[in-house]
Amino acid sequence: MRLIPKIFTKVSNAIYKGFSGEVVSLPSVGLAIHDGINFGGVLIQPQSATAFANRDNFVRNSNFRSIQNGSLFIGNSAPATYTIDGWFMLHNGGSTSNIAQLSGYDVETNSMTRARVTTFSGGLSSSYSIFAQTYHNLARFAGKKMTLSYWIKPTLDTSITNEMRLTFADAGTVDRGVLVGRQSLKANVWNRVESTFSVPAIGASDIINNNTDNARILYWLDAGDDWNSRTGGILPFSGTFDIANVKLDGNNRATEYDASDIIYENQKVQEYYEKNTRIHYLPNLGTLQSDPLTTKVFGELAFANAKWTNLPMITYTLSNANTGILQGRDSGGFTIQATATSDTLGASITTYTGDAEIIP
User: Fold this and answer.
1) Cα dihedral 218→222→227→233 (10° resolution)
2) Nearby residues of 228 by Cβ (< 8 Å), 6 or more positions away
3) Contact 152, 241 (CB under 8 A)
């Protein structure tokens, strides 16, 4: 009888026979008892102890499939750099990084896409490299029991830490965080991370502003000693991490990761950030002009998916038009006025972004 059970994904277990009486652990799923004859064994799935068992994954772009701004981000060194959709890279103390999307099926994690994060530590006590995602409406998390789970593979033995923080715009309301879990990782193999934690509570005296406050999950990959109180003490790290299937459950245990269909996943991503490269022609505003090249044109553009705020940042690129003036914006889209510059080619917007991401 094996004293320490093997750890498989559900997919890997499905093609495994094992031996009679062998128990295999399936993270976020349960246990499988094998008989040495039949593939997959008998699956035992534990029942959740809370009412949040089937709550959706709070992480957006949790499988790193959406890449509206590209799949490679080299030389990240700023305090905060937006990379693969939904994900920021944070740096301090001379640390830098490269981020890339990996594609192709990986049987161990049952994933088609993953993130590859390469860190170059500044080597100072103040240095850090943090992978991060932020969330609006922090009140929905406050005081809740939650579980963070994912797969991670480093190129060297190391330790990492996860942290959940509630951040407030009001100067009199104190930011607060909780150490989600510090974990030692083995090199060149997939390591399973599962950490259950209680989110800090908010009280009646806390001033909440849902347009500016946020919750954030921080994945500390490299950190100097100045940050030990928040990391539990991890080392500076220069190397590569592959990360797959990130899930944040509103639950006291990790539940099975299930990749959302692309339409639903895009809705989650584009609630915060949307890039549109379709050409949108701008019609005449309806005013008479003696010179065709002074014709005013107008556009009312709807987002593919509504943003969480009425104040998204709007950028756009005009073609055959100039002097663009943003007339209005809300969670559903924006309006623009411009001046045509050609009497033969239609004025248009060739690209626009609606950015409601919250910079950590």
Assistant:
1) 100
2) none
3) yes
**Proportion of the chain in helix, strand, coil states, percent, rounded to 5:** 10, 45, 45
Give the span between the Cα atoms of 86 and 64, in whole angstroms.
9
**Tokens standing for residue 234:** 């991890």
Cα–Cα distance measured from residue 232 to residue 180, given in angstroms and rounded to the nearest whole number: 10
Q: What is the pTM of this model?
A: 0.83
pLDDT digits (tens, 9 = 90+) for 251-271: 888 988 987 778 888 999 999
How, if at all, do strands 20-26 and 80-82 pair? unpaired
Residues of the chain with confidence (pLDDT) below 50: 1-2, 47-55
- Tokens at residue 164, please? 């959940």
* Cβ pair 237, 121 in contact under 8 A: yes
Instruction: Kindly report, residue by residue over 159-197, the tens digit of the pLDDT.
Output: 999 999 999 999 899 999 999 999 999 999 999 999 999
DSSP state of 110: T
Joined tokens for residue 214 = 């946020």
Map the chain to HEC letters: CCCCCEECCHHHHHCCCCCEEEEEEECCCEEEEEECCCCCCEEECCCCCCCCCCCCCCCCCCCCCCCCCCCEEEEECCCEEECCCCCEEEEECCCEEEEEEEEEEECCCCEEEEEEEEEECCCCCCCEEEEEEEECCHHHCCCCEEEEEEEEEECCCEEEEEEEEEECCCCCCCCEEEEEEEEEECCCCCEEEEEEEECCCCCCCCCCCCCCCEEEEEEEEEECHHHHHHHCCCCCCCEEEEEEEEEEECCCCCCCCCCCCHHHHHHHHHCCEEEECCCEECCECCCCCCCHHHCEEEEEEECCCCCCCCCCEEEEEEECEEEEEEEEEECCEEEEEEEECCCCCCCEEEEEEEECCCCC
Q: Tell me, what's the pLDDT at 10?
A: 66
Q: Are 112 and 104 in contact (CB under 8 A)?
A: yes
At 32 the pLDDT is 79
* pLDDT at 285 (0 to 100): 73
Give the type of residue at 75: G
